[in-house]
Design brief:
Blueprint lengths: L2 H8 L6 H15 L3 H36 L2 H5 L2 H4 L11
Length: 94
């Protein structure tokens, strides 16, 4: 099988240049009024998608900091009773 016959077999039924122009004109006639609405909705979708990505990236950083802030000091440093002094002062002997 030659290259030209293979190409013509694969391209059979696909629209050519002038056929694409006719398809586009018919599409504009049918959907011309709705194109601004479609463009607006696509723009809003992209905006919300980017906002979601940004919020998701912020959420990844914040939980670790919140967990550290929410831990009581007893868990982080230990209780005063465990260190051996009740109030952190030395006892005097007189």
């Amino acid at each position: 099988m030659t290259t030209t016959s293979l190409f013509s077999t694969l391209a059979f039924g696909l629209p050519g240049g002038t056929e694409w122009i006719v398809i586009l004109v018919i599409g504009l006639l049918l959907f011309g009024r709705r194109l601004p609405e479609v463009g607006k909705s696509i723009g809003q979708g992209i905006k919300e998608f980017k906002k979601g990505l940004k919020d998701d990236a912020d959420d990844d950083v914040e939980p670790a900091a919140k967990k550290r802030a929410q831990l009581p000091n007893e868990q982080v440093l230990g209780t005063p009773e465990s260190t051996g002094s009740a109030s952190g002062e030395r006892q005097r002997t007189t």
